[in-house]
Amino acid sequence: MDARKAHKASSSSSPSSSSKRCEYQVFLSFRGEDTRKGFTGHLHAALSDAGIRAFLDDNELKRAEIIETQLMQAIDGSMISIIVFSKSYANSNWCLKELVKIMKCRERLGQQVMPLFYNVDASDVRKQTGSFAKAFEKHEAGICEGKHEKEKVQRWRNALTQAADLCGEDLKNADNG
Fold first, then answer.
1. What is the 3-state secondary structure (H, E, C) of the chain?
2. Which residues pair with residue 80 across a beta bridge?
3. What are the tens digits of pLDDT across the range 71-80?
4. Element (H, E) at 6
5. Residue span of the structural domain in which 136 resides
6. 8 within domain boundaries
7. Which residue of 57, 117, 147, 170 has the fewest CB atoms within a 10 Å radius of its CB?
8. Residue 2, in any domain of the structure
9. Mean pLDDT across 73-94
10. What is the percentage of the chain residues whose pLDDT exceeds 90?
11. Pick from 79, 111, 90: which is nearest to 158 by CA?
12. Which of the four pLDDT bands, split at 50, 70 and 90, describes residue 106?
């Protein structure tokens, strides 16, 4: 077997291979209280109706103590992540942790990322103004003097900027579907 075939055979069994990691076609990142029963619920139903396996946390998570692990594995195991940015998205530590992971998967694995701006300006996400500025005021007010916490908040800010710079869809004044 030549070197290219050997490399292909070994890489297809590695954990980062696309056949191994693509448990879901789409991972949906969203703020539950904003869009779960409206836009995101409709989006998930439409994807499912089209035969697309999409991860939606309320259907897939099994036990509270392993939620974070399951979320991170689901992100790793998806080909595409759709981020539904809404007014209170940045209020959620969970959403921001997901976003950092999504952007790492984009960089490391070439995962496609599509931002959707649901009744929020992309510039508010990119520059952390408006409701995003208010959310970060709360995050920063809750920070201990620890360097680790400050770096975490900076990673959240960077991930928001990177995601908002991607080509996405503006869904201003969108109703529940």
1. CCHHHHHHHHHHCCCCCHHHHCCEEEEEEECHHHHCCCHHHHHHHHHHHCCCCEECHHHHCCCHHHHHHHHHHHHHCEEEEEEEECCCHHHCHHHHHHHHHHHHHHHHHCCEEEEEEECCCHHHHHHCCCHHHHHHHHHHHCCCCCHHHHHHHHHHHHHHHHHHCCCCEEECCCCCC
2. 26, 112
3. 899 999 999 9
4. helix 3-12
5. 19-171
6. no
7. 147
8. no
9. 93
10. 54
11. 90
12. very high
Mean pLDDT of 112-139: 94
Mean pLDDT calculated for residue range 84-99: 94
pLDDT at 86 over 50: yes
- Residue 174 contacts residue 118 (beta carbons within 8 Å): yes
CA distance 151 to 108: 20
| Domain assignment present for 153 | yes
Domain count, the chain: 1
17: phi then psi, degrees, rounded to nearest 5 = -70, 150
For residue 130, give the CATH number of its domain. 3.40.50.10140
Active-site residue 98, yes or no? yes
pLDDT at 128 over 80: yes
Residue 84 structure tokens: 């539904």
Which of these is catalytic: 33, 65, 68, 98? Answer: 98
Q: Are 177 and 125 in contact (CB under 8 A)?
A: no
